[in-house]
Known about the structure:
Layout: H1 2-22, E1 34-44, E2 49-56, H2 58-61, E3 76-83, H3 86-91, E4 100-102, E5 108-111, H4 113-118, H5 121-129, E6 138-141, H6 146-151, H7 160-174, H8 183-190, E7 196-206, E8 225-236, E9 239-244, H9 246-256, E10 262-266, E11 277-292, E12 298-312, H10 322-350, H11 357-364, H12 366-372, H13 376-379, E13 384-395, H14 403-410
Parallel strand pairs: 1-4, 1-5, 5-6, 12-13
Antiparallel strand pairs: 1-2, 2-3, 7-8, 8-9, 10-11, 11-12
Membrane topology: Lipid-anchor
Domain Spore germination GerAC-like C-terminal: 232-397
InterPro entries: GerAC_N, Spore_GerAC-like, Spore_GerAC-like_C, Spore_GerAC_C_sf
Amino acid sequence: MGKNFLHGWLRLLTSIFLCLLLSGCWDRIELNQLGITAATAIDWNGKDWTVSYQIVIPQSISSQSMGGNAGQQAPVSVFSTSGGTLRGAVQKSSLEMPRAMFFAHNRIVVIGEQAAKHGISQLMDIYLRNSDARETVSVLVTNGEGRRILEQVASIEKLPGAAVRNMIRNEEKNGSNFNHMMIQNVMMGMTSDSSYTLIPEVIISGTGVGPNSSIAELKKTTSANKLKLGRLGIFKQDKLVGWFTSDEGYGINWIRDTIKKTVLHFGCSKDSKDHKSAIRITKATSKLKPILANDGQWIMKVEVHAAGVLIENGCNDDLSKIKGIKATEDIANEEVKNLMIKAFQSAIEKNTDVFGFADVIHRKYPKVWKKIKNDWEEQFPTLQLEPSVHIKIDRIGMSNKPFKQLLHDHE
């Protein structure tokens, strides 16, 4: 009798537990009650912040093809709100948005030029304090209003925000002129000893006026405008103070040890601007070694080691011989060395330690750094760079000679 009674109670408790599981979460929010944000933009008009949102239209995204009927809905909707604070601007979105804003899937944040010059510390503060804001969001800057970037449709990706994020990821992986900067990277750069951060610029490139925001643009094989990576914005702490060209950014990345995979173009002689050959760099490392000379002069030694494959050859060196390969490697070495020197000279002219030299010196000479850290802006322009580059060609392909020379040999 007691045993049956116990089994009865166990069945009752099990039933109650299962009912509780089936009842769901008391505070859940259905998907159709959320406005999923794919990208945001931050602008400043001198008085108020303007936050723009790229909201996903689920029924359009679920379509199997972007080339549907003429009345097809755009994959996203863009609108803006303004306020004295960024959170105040976001709060006003409830006045015109029938759904609660959901930022967990936000891919990018584009900072307009005026907002960048004003300072983005408030934006960083938001990401430190809100659980729905992820530190892995990609950060970009633009030379006009950030909203314009969100309005530009992308022909390959359904979501323009995803297109920009994939663009910077692809460039960092295969080009290395730019680095993919996330909120967490920006915060670390702004709070480092040098306090400088480089953020990629995204622009609307083309012959048209303004962004192509019509869904009809997706049915064309060409477009008057497109999204494109431009320069590198220089941030001193939280403010935009200048720009580097993409070529200067390439040299900076060789110094900073942020080259992943890239194609290095070079000529047939040292210092030649007529690039006829190319090496696909498959691995590269850069080591910084600060030296404090007896006279107080700072010297930064940069030693680069890289390896790659020859993928284009327009020069006449005989690559069947070690001497010919060595000559090609020497020219490539000189090209990288020149890239680093030009980038360093530009940084000296702007007096911007974007290389993180201050952090390297701090680690190597902690006691000395305590004495000079307040005067680093005066000392940085006097620093000397001593680069050395060692590139090894692992493979040259199926021919030792350029194809043009093979044609001449056949005559």
